[in-house]
Amino acid sequence: MKHSLFTPLAALLLGGTALACTGFAGVHDHFLPLNGTFAIKNQIPLNSAGYGISHFGKGAYMITDGAYQTLILVSTDGVIVVDAPPTTGRNLQHAIANLTSIPVRYFIYSHSHADHAGAAYLFANQSQPAVTTIAHTNTAAQLATAKDPLRPTPQITFDKTYTLVAGNQTLRLSFPGIGHDLGNILIYAPRQKILMMVDQIYAGWVPFWNLAASLYIPGWIDAHDIILSYDFDIYLGGHMGGAGNRTDVETQKEYVTDLYNNCAEALLESAPGGNPRTDIAKISEKVLGDNPGNVWAQFAVYLDAVAEVCYEKTSEKWLGRLAAQDVFGFSHARTMVSSLRLDYDVLGPNGVRG
Ligand SMILES: *[C@@H]1O[C@H](CO)[C@@H](O)[C@H](O)[C@H]1NC(C)=O
Ligand SMILES: *[C@@H]1O[C@H](CO)[C@@H](O)[C@H](O)[C@H]1NC(C)=O
Ligand SMILES: *[C@@H]1O[C@H](CO)[C@@H](O)[C@H](O)[C@H]1NC(C)=O
Ligand SMILES: *[C@@H]1O[C@H](CO)[C@@H](O)[C@H](O)[C@H]1NC(C)=O
Ligand SMILES: *[C@@H]1O[C@H](CO)[C@@H](O)[C@H](O)[C@H]1NC(C)=O
Ligand SMILES: [Zn+2]
């Protein structure tokens, strides 16, 4: 599958046969079918109201609308809610009221993003009883800047770790450093051995667009090992309608490692005389010839060509193994190429001149 940006230029550069373009940038229906894959089988069924609940035991539940996840812990001192995606919205309140008569007393922000926290006010602004809200210091700063009535600033903040003990339940919160967001935290329920870190691991799927739209890719990559240092049986990544486990974390780590290696190789072989598809001298000559003085144009074509080679190499192993490699795989290659260049100093032909 080719994305639309690259294909016409590739055809030009290679002087040849234009490949069928389904258009990464456009909506189309030519993606691989997911029937029978773990990604689909792992989804729990939704009720007629549009949500489903997994019961993990010892008062721990996941509520999902099929695309987003909320963690619920029922304690003798009130219900603890982690995240309130707007798409699940008021169904969260319905689901909790159907589970227990114990009221919600604690709300935790996994991170600042509106797609996971846009219904936070349903709990944060509850008055009877009042709800204690908790988030990382950086998340609090982001929410203060956002001034979003749907995501009120938290009452309790922490820099490194915070342990919430509520009646018979314990949640350990920990900040691993900047990665997906400025203040994305690990949320660990030791009694149930549940670990939640949102927008980090996607059970059965490649990550969401651009390596989970993360702010700092090295931090997001390092979080894989931090997660694996925990003793957990159930993993919640905040996305899709099914929980994951340790195997899913290891699988995604392998995917990201392959992506890193393939993109590094693609950058290194893009030197003059290297891979003819990404040869920076050939691309510059052609694009600058057609667009005199347009340095950004030659750079854009070059970087996308490198990402394309990385994407194709990665797809050889992962297409069909993790769902939606055909959907988001190119965006991941592009993001990894950029991070390799800027964060990891793998500049290929643009390194220190000899
Ligand atoms: C995929 O699933 C859909 C909906 O359940 C079904 O109609 C279709 O026949 C399935 N296709 C294959 C190839 O199994
Ligand atoms: C804590 O208490 C709640 C409410 O009674 C119960 O549902 C849950 O199973 C208990 N959890 C643990 C870990 O004992
Ligand atoms: C239980 O769930 C249903 C369906 O979402 C909802 O209509 C009903 O109001 C809920 N019950 C309570 C007590 O909230
Ligand atoms: C929630 O409460 C905050 C004050 O804590 C207020 O600024 C905000 O407008 C409220 N949001 C809604 C949706 O009522
Ligand atoms: C994780 O779940 C998958 C699918 O259900 C299973 O095959 C695998 O053995 C599980 N891994 C662990 C460590 O439990
Ligand atoms: Zn996010």
Automatic annotation (TrEMBL):
Which residue range or ranges hold the Metallo-beta-lactamase domain? 66-239
Q: Which domain of life is it from?
A: Eukaryota
**Signal sequence region:** 1-20
Which keywords label this protein? Signal
| InterPro entries xrefs | Metallo-B-lactamas, NDM-1-like, RibonucZ/Hydroxyglut_hydro
Q: Which CDD domains match?
A: metallo-hydrolase-like_MBL-fold
Q: Which Pfam families match?
A: Lactamase_B
Family annotation (SMART domains): Lactamase_B
Specify the protein name. Beta-lactamase-like protein
